[in-house]
Amino acid sequence: xxxxxxxxxxxxxxxxxxxxxxxxxxxxxxxxxxxxxxxxxxxxxxxxxxxxxxxxxxxxxxxxxxxxxxxxxxxxxxxxxxxxxxxxxxxxxxxxxxxxxxxxxxxxxxxxxxxxxxxxxxxxxxxxxxxxxxxxxxxxxxxxxxxxxxxxxxxxxxxxxxxxxxxxxxxxxxxxxxxxxxxxxxxxxxxxxxxx
Length: 196
Description:
The chain is built from 9 helices and 2 strands. The chain is mostly helical.
């Protein structure tokens, strides 16, 4: 147990030392986003560096970028909710739009210009709730690792739902067997039998 106490003390000391650095990181990220300094800057050798995409800047090796993942930057600023929200909005705006479709549902040919430019959606109530109450899941949504709905289900904010094909009873049964526990299936059979 003494060894465990030593480990806890070391980790606590490292976190204590890191707090001022994390505050400086949040301040720096705020300035970076406010000025959009990541878009165009002069590198150490006087080279002009340009980025059209925030994720490209974050992941580019130094000195052309930060050389980290968007998730790490999000974790560094997580304690400052204003900066975290500002970063999330900027990352969401950087998420590529799905290919536009014509009225017939076909993707335009290469070189064709879509009629409307992609405008990023504002933060939805679901994303706001994840940001405030489940920041780890929110980071995964912003990074594109998880859908908003899946994150809401994992956080317990929405019930898990499935699609059940009803054209053939055996297909419905297969879908329910894959997604329900034995106890849930027994309860379902009991409930269905009551109305017969």
